[in-house]
Amino acid sequence: MLTVDIQLHQPYGVNSRLDLQARFDLRPGDCLGVMGASGSGKTTLVHAIAGLLSPSAGLIRSEEQVWFDAKQGIQLPPWQRSVGLVFQDGRLFPHMTVEQNLRYGMPEAEGQITLMEVVNVLEIGTLLQRKPGQLSGGERQRVAIGRALLRQPVVLMMDEPLSGVDDHLKQQVLPYIKQVIASFGLPTLYVSHVREEVAEIANEVWVLAQGVLRQPV
Amino acid sequence: MWALSPAELAVVLLSLKVAACCVLVLLLPAIAMAWLLARKQFWGYAVLDALVHLPMVLPPVVLGYMLLIMLGRRGWVGSWLYEQFHLQLTFHWWGAVIASAVMAFPLMVRAIRQALLQVNPLLEQAAQTLGASPVRTFFTITLPLSYHGVLTGGILAFSRSLGEFGATITFAGNLEGETRTLPLAIYSLTQSPEGDAAALRLVILSVLVSVAALLISQWLERRLLRSQR
What we know:
The complex is a heterodimer of chains A (about 220) and B (about 230). Chain A has about 220 residues and is α/β, with parallel strands linked by helices. Chain A has helices spanning about 40-50, 100-105, 115-120, 135-150, 165-185, 195-200; strands at about 1-10, 15-25, 30-35, 55-60, 65-70, 75, 85, 155-160, 190, 205-210, 210-215. Chain A starts with a strand and ends with a strand. Chain B is mostly helical and about 230 residues long. In chain B, α1 runs parallel beside α5. Classes of the chains: A alpha/beta (about 220), B mainly alpha (about 230). The interface of A and B includes residues 77, 78, 84, 91 and 104 of A.
């Protein structure tokens, strides 16, 4: 289970600042959808959990491991947090093949999620020897999801994974995302500004507005 | 007219050896310095940046003289090297390597730094979320995506070393068979009345070696970019 209870204050743009407050628990099988307008702090929240940003106060804990605790001064770096993060733009490594990308975050000891399983669920077996530059937008996002899964994370986070693909591709990739969440049962945080998309994927949708993440009444 | 004498051949081989060693000696420090300047902001950044680029604006003879003061037999570091290891850099081909390395350092740093700046830092961030430490991220993501800059920097350093004259003659001397590289040999030949034909041969050879280095670098760069697509 992932427990998040953080406050974050940081400059945003030229003259503004972002104040963010988020408190939630994610259990195995949960898929929490976070919806919010552009600039509401969705990516900031994801980055804070992944360790790419430091919250100002609060606590982030995964099972018994504390990732962040402002009071005790604990702040694990991103590479020590067991997070599978799918970025908006995929961020595949352009000099590696799809297979090398998939294997990049795999621990040495074989984990519960295998390469074969991921390749089958996401149907990317024919792409393994290609370079990211030879993939379509939808294929790239499927590979990015596979790469995040093979990290064997305790939590999967997807930050607007479909915002860079057109509607047609979106309809192609959505079933894969649902399939991944159903097959692997990882606690998942799905972030998007599109209400329908979040509603289709998540089993609970919260809204991030005015800097506070809330469950709609 | 066109056949090289054994002495001329030795000059060419010495120049190639000095240039190759110059690139090898510079590789690690240039990559480290380029990374520091491309990725970090710290107190004294502007001063360090200026120091790195100093050899580009200082007359080579001045640098050669500074090297002599520091690394010469009676220099601050040179005397210590001699006492401890019996190592003398002046009048030794390693002196020529050091002199050309100092001159070529900013060129190599600039090329690598430029390439590092083109690497998307978001890819490094992605690697870290996949469990890669900063060191692993550097060697698996940052550096491979900057290879073209390392290659360009290496070729620039190689070419600069082949053409290096002022710092080498001041610091390492003009010792036949030891520190007399191509430019020094051409200079020495132009000082003697019978040396014109030999000087011309070496000039042509210098041009050929430099053109070959550039062509090889362009070919390697094309291959590298193709392999990354």
